[in-house]
Amino acid sequence: MATPLVIGARFLGAFIFTAIACIVKRVDIRVPREHHKILILRSIFGLISFACGTFAFQNMPVGEATVLISMAPVFVAMFSACFLGESISCATVLLIILSLSGIVLIVDPDSLAQANNTLPKLNLLAAAAALCQALSKAVSYIFIKRSNNKIYFLTMIFWYALFGFACTAFFISHRLLFTQSSWKDTSWVVKPLDSRDYIYLSIISLLGFISQVTLTKATQLINTTVVSLIRNTDILVTMCFQIFYFHIVPCWLQVIGMVIMVIATLLILASKERERVIATHPKCFPDCYR
Predict the structure, then answer these.
(1) Integer Cα distance of 167 and 100 in angstroms
(2) What is the rounded CA–CA span in Å between residue 71 and residue 49?
(3) Which DSSP string corresponds to 158-169?
(4) Is the pTM of this model over 0.90?
(5) Given this model, what pLDDT does residue 121 score?
(6) What are phi and psi of 178, to 5 degrees?
(7) DSSP letters spanning 125-190
(8) Could you say which DSSP state residue 190 is in?
(9) Facing residues of 4 across strands?
(10) How far apart are CA 247 and CA 253, in angstroms?
């Protein structure tokens, strides 16, 4: 299935379901002028994030793509410290370095080629797209948090989905995307769909809406790094899905890289929780524990 169709279905579904929810809840979708910049940048980086993620998932094993995309908490921790004033400890910095070492193992060209011999030329490009997805997702988290509940979460999703669908529709309409084009990557070439494709696109639309609602609301309410880390709990599920459904078994270097990534992510989560508890109850902890 062509990548643009998957992206378009995701945004169209989110737009339709959000529009229905806004009508039922009588939500005012107008956004104050001072918040237009945040909304536009969130939409742009959200579109880049989903487009890169879709391309990565279609051109490399699901497990490896998920782990690379799960680098988002590392970027969120850095960006939140720079732009939101959230604390970042030395332990977090060391864990970020540990996560980067896991990436080196996962993106090793020889390992990727062995893991999926049918797509050897696209592996590095797909890995780069997965990392770009993680970076763009982190930036999106920052802009969602910057809205600071000043933009209702359904309003933000409505305009984000509309922007994403409009851009994707324009992209699909371009003549280079059709079967007679000279576009070398066939995953971007639009071809006729069968009934199974429509079912898949409908499921993607519904799940995309649910994902956006829960993600946007959670990011507005709690620490951005914690949200991104909780979001990473799908790593083990996707790895199992890759093995049992696609019958793609990662090599031992990639397994080590995944384990490093998971451990670093969990330790960052524990570090953030420790900082939160100490900040909430400072008198209960001596200076040596801070």
Answers:
(1) 33
(2) 13
(3) HHHHHHHHHHHH
(4) no
(5) 46
(6) -95, 170
(7) HHHHHHHHHHHHHHHHHHHHHHHTTSS-HHHHHHHHHHHHHHHHHHHHHSGGGBTTS--S-GGGSB
(8) B
(9) none
(10) 18
